[in-house]
Structures are given as C-alpha cells and as structure tokens.
Amino acid sequence: MGMGMGGPASGLAPDAVVSPQVCFLSQGPVITARFSPDRKILAVQRTDTEIEFVNQEDGSQFWQKCKGTSRLGFGSETKLLGFFWCSNMSNLDIVFVTTGGLELYKLLGSKKGLQLKEVKKHSIKWYKYTA
Q1: Which strands make up the sheet holding 101-107, listed edge to edge?
Q2: Contacts for 75-80 with beta carbons within 8 Å, 24 or more apart?
Q3: In the prediction, which pLDDT does 21 show?
Q4: Predicted pLDDT at 27
C-alpha cells in the first residue's frame, strides 16, 4: 500500500502547525505520488507510461498516458521518467518528463481530464525532482 502526502498550505505563517493531508493508495505499486498545489488532485505514477489522477473532492479518477514514440525513432516507446505540478493564479498545469522530452498539460476546469498544451522534444536520460 502506498501513501500520498501533501505539505502545509501556502500563505500560512512559518510557525503555523499544519497536519499533512494523507491519502492511502492500495491499487498497486506506486512510483511517485504528488498532490496538486491546491491539494485537490492527487497524481499517482504507477508505471513508466501513465499517471492516474484522483480528485480528492469527489473521488473521481482519470488516467493520462505520455505521448507516442521517442523523437529518435527506432520504434522505441517513450518512457515516463517523472512529473511535476506548476501553476499560476488561473491555471493548474502538470509537466510530464519523458525520455522523448517534456509534455505540458493543462488540467481541465472539470478536473476530470488533461489537455495537451505543448511538447518540447529532447532526448532525456534521467530526471530528479526537488521541491
């Protein structure tokens, strides 16, 4: 069983005590799990090709695979190395880091799907996320 955790909400005093949000994940192995900045969506990477999204408000789920084959051709499949959330005041976006480059997605207003906004093709061998 995996577990996703969210840290303290932004905008609080540095000395404010906030309990982390916890969500138990029991549907299989978990490579990475991260809450969206607004803590309303939990993204769970279980394989090297797909991310599962769980809406914390209504429990609905959807999945998104990374795109096609690598830019290098050779019929090799693009592998998902990881992902990270990014946001501004009006949009909530997620970036998939793949062996074929970066894929930028916008979370739809319904919070039940993603829309591909941009792909930056580049050969990527490894990825490390730091907060």
Answers
A1: 80-87, 92-98, 101-107, 114-121
A2: 77/49, 78/49, 79/48, 79/49, 80/45, 80/47, 80/48, 80/49, 80/50, 80/51
A3: 54
A4: 76
Which domains does the chain show, CATH number per domain?
A: 2-7+19-121 (2.40.128)
DSSP per residue over 54-84, as a string? EETTT--EEEEEPPSB-TT-TTPBP-EEEEE
Q: Give the global pTM.
A: 0.76
At position 72, the amino acid (one-letter code) is: L
DSSP 3-state of 120: strand
Buried b (16+ CB within 10 A) or exposed e, 48-62: eeebbbbbbeeeeeb
The pLDDT of residue 110 is: 87
Question: What are the 10-residue block averages of pLDDT along the chain, 131 residues in total?
Answer: 45 53 69 94 95 94 82 70 87 94 93 94 92 74
Q: Which of 111, 128, 116, 29 is nearest to 68 (CA)?
A: 116
